[in-house]
Amino acid sequence: MTSSHLSNNTLRSLSKGVKTPGYDRDKVAPGIVHLGVGAFHRAHQAVYVDDCLGAGETGWGIVGVSLRSADTRDALSPQDGLYTLAVRSSDSEQLRIIGSIGSMLVAPEDPATVLAALADPRTRIVTLTITEKAYLRAPGGGLDTAHPDIVGDLARPELPKTAHGFLAEALHRRRAAGIAPFTVLCCDNLPANGATLHRLMIEFAALRDADLARHIADEVAFPSSMVDRIVPATTDADRARIAIELGVADSWPVMTEPFRQWVIEDRFPAGRPAWEKFGVTMVEDVRPYEEMKLRLLNGAHSAIAYLGLLSGHETVDRAFAEPAIRQFVDALWAEAISTLPEDAGLDTSTYTAELAERFSNPALAHRTAQIANDGSQKLPQRIIASAIDCLEAGDEMVHLTLVVAAWIAACAARADTLPESHFTDPLDTALTPLLRQHLPANETVAAVFDLAGFAGDHAERQTLIELVAVHLVHLRRGGPTLAFAALGIGSEEA
């Protein structure tokens, strides 16, 4: 293993064939603060910004903020914020050094510095990838006002812990100083993510200051966006391989696929980079693209994850290669496609063909356990919404509900056929003891729906519970093989 590390000083010594930033990083000014600097952000939004910096738009450097862990800061700061993007197809790998993150902050260590960056007049956009659970929604979809972090942020606004608290306090300070508000761009997998975050922020601010709530409601832009790129977790083997290829060590390279997509509602009063020059689709309405992605890619990902785990598959490509799972996903897509808007010009045939190719990429080694995390927060928009739309339209629907049953069965399998902490969920404190009671399937599903708030008070809620319960009976008796057989899906060998 090489002893030298990736940094500004070692850029010139990297192996030939490695693409490096084509701009002077010393001339880049911060214009974007990003909350939630994880692997996805570094493989997606930061790459598009890097493209813009390379084209001379030097006012859009990124200040990265970790809301919880110092791991990313500790890995990237000694490397001057640089890291390797490894784009992997089934037969090749291309390396690129990304330089768009100029500095890294850890919110719990120094909230004052984070607030200063957010209040800086140069900051015109705040982007977020904090995962669904960090939006702290109650089962009904509104703000969880009883959450201790929300309560704490309202009591001590100068020392926030949540994204809500940081955004509200920064917008308050900017308003008091006569600085125009930044645009808030949500990049998480929430339905109508911009509008959803806007509503949550108004709810939060109203508990603190009615004038601030009106300011956020009337003056702050929250465009919606849809993001898409598969980003598996980086392994030690990846680090070792990348170090050999670079000629220097990189503490946290990012693995990803060639495909990437970003669709953004074009509402940026304070300005924005010319993202459209680098493949971003700027539109008036993101919703059709968002629904297609949530219901076809993310919905299938959840299905593959839970059915794959129950079938003993560690990665997406291996699970998708099982004929029964592949046949199931095709049928799942057919059900979900029927719920998409017909007048939006969506090419679902091409999209699902691309998804099948992406899911089959063995080079990514995308772990089913990684996708399985936080199912209670993901399934409402990925699966439950499609199922309700099918029921309302009177369309036949049996595959969508198996995904929900598979999630319940996979959660119950932890500490049994799966390791105890193989994946996690925000509801585990209540979910785990519930599942250990081994109640009849109908009672189990009804209790889980109550706990997770699935379907709310919708008229079709009981029908959904009954359909999920039938699948859960099959999964309990004979695993995915019996569940598939009940759907007419064969178990032929690959």
Task: Give a description of the structure.
Residues 1-22 are annotated as: Disordered. It comes from Mesorhizobium shangrilense. Residues 1-13 have a biased composition (Polar residues). The chain is globular, with a radius of gyration of 23 Å. The chain has 19 helices and 11 strands. The protein is an alpha/beta fold and 494 residues long. The model has no long low-confidence stretch (mean pLDDT 96). The longest helix is centred in the last third of the chain and has 26 residues, at 461-486. Helix 6 (163-176) crosses helix 7. 46% of the residues lie in helices and 11% in strands. The protein has 2 domains: 8-283, 3-Layer(aba) Sandwich (Rossmann fold); 291-486, N-(1-d-carboxylethyl)-l-norvaline Dehydrogenase, domain 2, CATH 1.10.1040.10. The chain has a 5-stranded parallel sheet, with helices on both faces.
CATH names the topology of the largest domain as Rossmann fold
Strand content: 5-15%
Ends apart, CA distance between termini: 39 Å
Radius of gyration over C-alpha positions, nearest whole angstrom: 23 Å
Number of domains in the coordinates? 2
Structural class, from secondary structure content? alpha/beta
- Give the count of helical stretches: 19
Number of DSSP-assigned strands: 11
Taking pLDDT < 50 over at least 5 consecutive residues as the criterion, the unreliable ranges are none
Q: Biggest sheet, in brief?
A: 5 strands, parallel
Question: What is the CATH H-level superfamily of the largest domain?
Answer: NAD(P)-binding Rossmann-like Domain
- Give average pLDDT, whole number: 96
Helix content: 40-55%
CATH architecture of the largest domain, please?
3-Layer(aba) Sandwich
**Widest β-sheet, arrangement of strands:** 5-2-1-6-7
Q: Please provide the ordered H/E string of secondary-structure elements.
A: EHHEHEEEHEHHEHHEHEEEHHHHHHHHHH
Shape: globular
Kindly provide the name of the CATH class of the largest domain. Alpha Beta
